Amino acid sequence: MKDSQIRDVRILASSQLLSPEEMEEELPIPEAAAVTVKTGRQEIQNILRREDDRFLVVAGPCSIHDPEAAYDYASRLAELRHKYADRMCIIMRVYFEKPRTTVGWRGLILDPGLDGTADIARGLKLAREILIKVNAAGLPAGSEMLDPIVPQYTADLISWASIGARTTESQTHREMASGLSMPVGFKNATDGDVQIAVNAIVSARQPHAFIGITRRGEACIMKTLGNPDGHLILRGGKNGPNYDSESVCDAISLLKNAGIRPSIIVDCSHGNSRKMPENQIGVLHETIRLRNNVDMPLRPLCGCMLESNIETGSQPITADPADLKYGMSITDPCLGWDLTASAIAEAYKLLGEKH
Q: I need a labelling partner for 178 at 20 to 30 A (CA). Which of 21, 227, 230, 337 fits?
């Protein structure tokens, strides 16, 4: 029997990628960017460990599809990071991979041309270029980790990572998170189940061994130390929001029962906003009010995530990407820049209030 009859029966083609090491040689990290990454990781770690009382804000597009718009947004957000640095640690949401319930555009890394050609080699380079420029501007980056190979190409430029609602229960992603070099947030499941995320945090704190690739692109056995900075992200669910005081207190209890010091970030979008971008403003401000209330044990509320872009809303992918409206999401609807800036300004004021 020929091997072709039993091997790769449904594989159309394969092509070689640069190894992570080779890509880093082509796109090395400037010193200024490396300092930003290290500073961002330390700040976020300190916030999660209550060694820094500032409020973490992860703001940025649902997904990056236009590098120029991403740089434009980053320059604006970098100004706010500096302006509000005494009460907030602001970092940019820089997402390149999109999980799909069925089908759809899977992100810049998988389809940079928005045309279904799957030019992944170009997508990985673009992602690394964008991360270098964002960090070089003094703005730390946060990103979702979806494909377990991709972090070898990008993770050295990321200060905060998330594991999405669809993959929090995945053993592969829990193992990956246990070896990542930055704090990692786990989202509750799409149906609202928080226990799944708590289990993931517990798992990621343990050492693991799994199959991966080296910096040279060779198959290897990875052994990890475990990640002590796993934390919970509340993103709502099928039954609605879960950022109210009762839901937050329930989540705190689940974390404590698992032996974890509670650290919680509220995702202002998704189920918590009911997919209406303007609703994120109320979620952000209510989260801070809960955090400020000294009569309630909600200091574990460490930060919020905002899906934000230059323009409010979203748009479908067009046959010609040149026809897309500049600065508008092609995935989930986002809050526009003016609304984002005013929401963060009001959040800054609320953080200064005492109750």
A: 21
Other Cβ atoms closer than 10 A to 137:
18
DSSP assignment letter at 163:
E
Q: Is residue 196 classed as helix, strand or coil in its secondary structure?
A: helix
Report the candidate in 298, 248, 250 with the shortest Cα–Cα distance to residue 272. Answer: 248
Instruction: State residue 353's pLDDT score.
Output: 80
Instruction: Determine the pLDDT at residue 247.
Output: 96
**What residue ranges in the chain does DSSP mark as E strands?**
55-60, 88-93, 141-144, 160-163, 184-187, 209-213, 219-223, 230-234, 264-267, 301-307
Q: What is the DSSP letter of 18?
A: P
Considering the chain, what percentage of its residues have pLDDT values greater than 70?
Answer: 96
Q: Which residues contact 31 (CB under 8 A, 6 or more apart)?
A: none
Among 169, 302, 205, CA closest to 248: 302
Q: Could you please report the per-residue DSSP string of 200-266?
A: HHHHHTS--EEEEE-TTS-EEEEE----TTEEEEE--BTTB---SHHHHHHHHHHHHHTT----EEE
Separation CA 177–CA 190 (nearest Å) = 19
Angle of helix 67-83 versus helix 120-136 axis, rounded to 10 = 30
Q: Which helix (H) or strand (E) holds 2?
A: none
Q: Is the pLDDT of residue 354 over 70?
A: no
Q: What is the pTM of this model?
A: 0.95
Structure tokens at 322: 């040149």
Give percent of the chain with pLDDT exceeding 90. Answer: 89
pLDDT digits (tens, 9 = 90+) for 303-334: 999 999 999 999 999 989 999 999 999 999 99
Rounded to a whole number, what is the distance in angstroms from the first to the last CA of the chain?
Answer: 77
C-alpha 338/C-alpha 127 separation (Å) is 26
Do the beta carbons of residue 310 and residue 338 sit within 8 Å?
Answer: no
Which of 156, 41, 142 is closest to 93 using CA atoms? 142
